[in-house]
Design brief:
The protein is of the alpha+beta class and 1018 residues long. 70% of the residues lie in helices and 9% in strands.
């Protein structure tokens, strides 16, 4: 993550909006954040952390507590941070919860927290990822950066007073950080997957065993042997029951077939009797059916003649319609001849109307010729109005510019008079700045000395506690040792009593070989067991280990106390006389000088403002002079243009009649003339059109009458021809006339029903006769069967079949249950065997991956330990240089006691003493160097591994003050090397040497109205 731009509004000590463009510091810069105490140096890091995660770096203050008390009420406290992740850029804006003034009325309203996250494309377009929800923005940032807020503080920001956290983190906390940085979650997922698979296999094995017990329980047998015996016992019964069932089934089938044959024969006898009755009935209906057949034939003839009769009626209707059309055409001809006479009379007026139309058109042309002249006159008048307005405007602007120029010259004279006075006052108070800087350094040194005294007192108290604890542990060890020795003595003495109990008269002793046993050994107390001896020895060993650990801790505290006392003595020597004073007295002097310095800053601000104002006045003077010259030129140009336009207007008015010098009057006259011409032309067109239409109507009426006469003659001829043809066909069909044909005619559905009845009768006669002949042949020599006897025999067979089937089902069901049980048990045993083989592999892998064997180190922690070794190699190289060859960081190889997570703890190797000791024993300056080396080494290794998070930015807040000059130079050299390798490094420090060695910086200026930021680039 690389910062690009940071904007803070009413945030922390910054009362207004402050924007820092980190790109101005250069590519991968090493820069210093410089400023007095309380000016807001750490606030810059707080703003970055708050924008990303909604929390500050120290986590002492919430976002709602970061509003500046000196900010204007209208300003909203917010932070906007633009940053780069790899090739992608983002911008996040976050607003904390705060009270803001209501837009209307009095009082305040509660502003809810909000956050917006944007992705920024290379072409400048933006895409909104999170619109307002704070939790969504934080989750999105954690996903894209790969770091939580705590991990961000530990690997990218070393906050003030908390640089030891990464160094002192335990295995569990360091595992969280490293797994996130190196993206080793896949190994954790492998552990969980193997663990779940092993648990699943164990559950399946248990399920198979329960299933096997359930199978045996359902079969009502206790074990496999009883199951086999039951199957062997039932096999002969099952064979006999199957044979009896098949025999009964065959007898039942034979009785069923005999009954079916008898029922079919009985049905044939019944059908033969019914057919004979039907034949008698059909013979009785034969005469009536003959009459119906004759009626159908006459209806068919009438149906064939019906189209010809319909044609005759149509021809008669056509003859009547032709006669009616002939009458209407004659009447229309008379009316058209009358209209033609009237149109000819109106046509005689056309010459007079055309002459009037020519006069009106000439008048219109004269008016149109005046229109361009009048439009040109209007344009000239409009231009004259604009020229007059420009003339007035130029005159007004000239007067205003003269007044502004006179006021500017008066202000300039007053400012020039104030400048010498301000410079003299400023020169008198300049030495005050050096005094304030020295006093701030003295206060910081005093605070460090007080902190050193408190540390010494705390260490002395811990040393006393460790000493008392050591006495108790020593007593505990002696008691455990005595108890163990007592049990061992009792055990050895008890062995003689055990041997004596086994002696017998006349048999040799196993120890001395004698056959006489005058005084065999005995024991009155219970003898200790081997487990009691082991437990006592284990307690002795644990007590000894605790005592040795306490002695090592006591020695480390003694060494730390010596170093802390030495550090405090050095600070006391640097303080000198100031050590006898109090912090309140030193701060009171500083506040007094700062009050005087604020007055000095006001003078400096006023002098800067006047100097800038003087330059602005000079620029405005030149600008106003130029504007005044331009305005005068515009005035002369506008006056010349207005005079020329007036002459053109007078000349145009001379050529236009007085009645038409207004455009609206001329337009109304033109419209009136155009309307008159249009009406006259319409009258002429109407008269000509009426004459033409009247002539056309007369010609059409004459033609229509001739066509009607011809149509009437043709219709009469067609009607006569059709009548004659119909009479011929009636005689041929046997009808006397049309009425006879009409009485014989039937509708289509009536003829169809009649025909169907006739055909059905004949078909029924044929079918009945054929079946009678067939059954007569089939039943020849047969007798009706005894159905009751056949049904009784079938019932007897059914009962026997049901009895045998029931007996078979009982044996078959039990046999099926037993066979299925045997098959299910074999399948269950096969599945259980396969699961056992599978668990032998998966279970072992799960135990190894989850740290259940050996040193109790899981797969992910093993991978992380290898990565930590790489980090420590890089870190030790830098720490070795910064500590002048004394320290190197190591990973603790011993397993932690109990169930605590282990494998990622750190130790430090001291080259001066050739001992390895905990990192907690390092002093403040040594801890800072170790933490800095750890952070830099972590950054190197994370970026070297594919898939790791890119840590290309590091912020360090204080800590350099605890280093001596040589260590400080080495630390700065390390940071310069880090910068040259492509990292951005930001440092917050009060140490003057840091300011001298780091050119690029962000200066924080503290004022009474809030702090301001300024970038300084060499």
């Amino acid at each position: 993550m690389k910062p690009i731009r940071l904007s803070m509004t009413a945030f922390g000590p910054f009362a207004e909006q402050e924007t820092l463009d980190f790109t101005q510091l250069g590519h991968n810069p090493l820069f210093l954040i410089n400023g007095p105490t309380g000016s807001g140096k750490t606030t810059i890091l707080d703003a970055i952390c708050f924008a990303l995660y909604g929390k500050t770096t120290g986590d002492e203050r919430e976002g709602s507590q970061m509003r500046c008390d000196m900010a204007a009420e209208k300003l909203l406290t917010e932070v906007t941070f633009e940053f780069q992740l790899g090739e992608l850029s983002y911008r996040i804006r976050r607003v904390p919860e705060q009270d803001r003034k209501k837009a209307r009325g009095d009082g305040y309203t509660r502003q809810k927290p909000e956050a917006q996250l944007y992705s920024l494309a290379a072409d400048g377009t933006e895409h909104l990822l999170v619109p307002s929800k704070v939790s969504e923005a934080t989750a999105e940032i954690e996903t894209r950066t790969g770091l939580s807020v705590d991990q961000f503080r530990q690997v990218m920001v070393l906050p003030q007073g908390k640089f030891r956290q990464l160094l002192m983190a335990d295995s569990k906390e360091r595992e969280k950080i490293f797994s996130q940085l190196f993206q080793t979650h896949v190994y954790r997922r492998i552990e969980e997957s193997l663990k779940q698979q092993a648990a699943g296999i164990r559950a399946q094995v248990s399920e198979q065993r329960n299933r096997r017990d359930g199978i045996l329980l359902n079969a009502e047998v206790e074990n496999d042997a009883q199951l086999s015996l039951e199957i062997d016992r039932l096999t002969p019964d099952f064979t006999a029951a199957s044979a009896a069932k098949e025999q009964a089934q065959a007898l039942f089938v034979e009785a069923t077939e005999a009954l079916q044959v008898g029922r079919r024969l009985s049905e044939d006898f019944n059908q033969f009797a019914e057919l004979k009755k039907l034949a008698e009935q059909l013979r009785a209906r034969a005469e009536g059916m003959g009459k119906q057949e004759q009626r159908w034939q006459r209806a068919e003839k009438a149906q064939r003649l019906q189209p010809l009769r319909d044609t005759q009626q149509s021809r008669q209707r056509e003859q009547q319609e032709a006669q009616q059309t002939q009458q209407r055409s004659s009447i229309a001809l008379d009316k058209s001849q009358q209209r033609l006479s009237e149109a000819q009379a109106e046509q005689s007026r056309l010459p007079e109307l055309k002459a009037q139309l020519d006069q009106q058109q000439q008048h219109q042309q004269q008016l149109r010729s005046l229109l361009p002249q009048l439009q040109g006159l209007s344009g000239l008048q409009a231009q004259q109005t604009l020229a007059s307005n420009r003339l007035i405007q130029a005159e007004t602007e000239g007067q205003q510019l003269k007044q502004q120029l006179e006021q500017l010259q008066r202000d300039k004279q007053q400012g020039e008079a104030q400048l010498p006075v301000l410079r003299t006052q400023l020169e008198r108070q300049l030495p005050l700045q050096q005094s304030i800087t020295e006093q701030q350094a003295r206060i910081e040194l005093f605070q460090q000395w007080q902190q050193a005294k408190e540390t010494v007192a705390s260490t002395e108290e811990k040393l006393s506690l460790e000493k008392a604890s050591g006495v108790g542990l020593n007593q505990r060890y002696e008691e455990a040792q005595q108890h163990s020795k007592g049990l061992q003595l009792a055990w050895h003495q008890g062995q003689a009593a055990i041997l004596s109990a086994q002696l017998k008269l006349g048999q040799p002793c196993a120890v001395c070989g004698s056959t006489d046993h005058p005084m065999p050994a005995s024991s009155d107390t219970p003898l200790p067991s081997e487990s009691d001896l082991s437990a006592a020895q284990q307690c002795e060993h644990e007590a000894l280990a605790s005592l040795q650990a306490a002695r090592e801790s006591f020695a480390a505290l003694q060494q730390a106390l010596k170093e802390q006392q030495s550090n405090g003595q050095q600070l006391l020597e640097r303080l000198g006389d100031a050590a006898s004073q109090t912090l309140e007295a030193l701060q009171q002097v500083l506040r007094t000088w700062q009050s005087e310095w604020q007055a000095l800053e006001s003078l400096q601000l006023r002098l800067s403002e006047l100097t800038a104002q003087q330059q602005q006045w000079d620029t405005q003077d030149v600008s106003l002079q130029g504007k005044l010259t331009v305005t005068r030129e515009r005035y002369q140009s506008a006056k010349s243009e207005a005079d020329g336009l007036q002459g053109q207007i007078d000349n145009a008015l001379y050529n236009i009649p007085a009645d038409y010098r207004e455009l609206k009057v001329l337009e109304r006259a033109l419209n009136k003339a155009e309307a008159a011409i249009k009406n006259q032309q319409q009258s002429i067109d109407v008269i000509a059109q009426r004459h033409t239409l009247a002539a056309q109507e007369q010609s059409a009426a004459e033609a229509a009458l001739q066509a009607a006469d011809q149509t009437c003659v043709e219709a009469a001829r067609h009607a006569q021809e059709t009548h004659q043809a119909l009479q011929v066909e009636l005689q041929s069909a046997g009808f006397a006339d049309e009425n006879a044909m009409q009485s014989a005619w039937l509708a289509d559905f009536e003829r169809a029903e009649l025909k169907q009845a006739i055909d059905g009768y004949h078909q029924q006669c044929q079918q009945s006769q054929g079946k009678i002949e067939q059954l007569s042949t089939q039943l020849s020599g047969q007798r009706p069967p005894d159905i009751e006897a056949l049904e009784a025999a079938l019932n007897v067979g059914r009962e026997q079949q049901q009895q045998q089937d029931a007996a078979y089902q009982i044996v078959h069901t039990r046999m099926t249950v037993l066979n299925n049980t045997q098959t299910q048990l074999q399948e269950a045993d096969a599945q259980t065997s396969a699961l056992d083989e599978q668990y032998a592999v998966v279970g072992t892998l799960s135990d190894v991956a989850n740290g259940q064997t050996g040193n109790k180190v899981s797969l992910q922690r093993f991978v992380l330990s290898v990565l930590l070794d790489d980090v420590l190699i890089e870190a030790s190289q830098r720490l070795y240089v910064m500590s002048k060859g004394r320290y190197q960081l190591l990973r603790k190889g011993d397993r932690s006691k109990g169930n605590r997570a282990s494998g990622l703890e750190l130790e430090v190797e001291d080259a001066y003493t050739s001992k390895v000791r905990p990192v907690a024993t390092l002093s403040g300056g040594e801890s800072f160097m170790a933490a800095l080396s750890m952070a830099l080494g972590l950054s190197d290794v994370v970026q070297a591994y594919a898939g790791g998070i890119k840590l290309d930015t590091l912020f360090i807040d204080e800590g350099f003050g605890s280093l001596d000059q040589e260590s400080l130079d080495l630390a700065v050299r390390t940071l310069v090397d880090l910068q040259s390798s492509g990292r951005m490094v930001g440092v917050i420090s009060h140490v003057a040497e840091m300011r001298e060695q780091i050119g690029a910086r962000i200066d924080i200026q503290k004022t009474s109205s809030g702090s301001r930021c300024a970038l300084v680039v060499p």
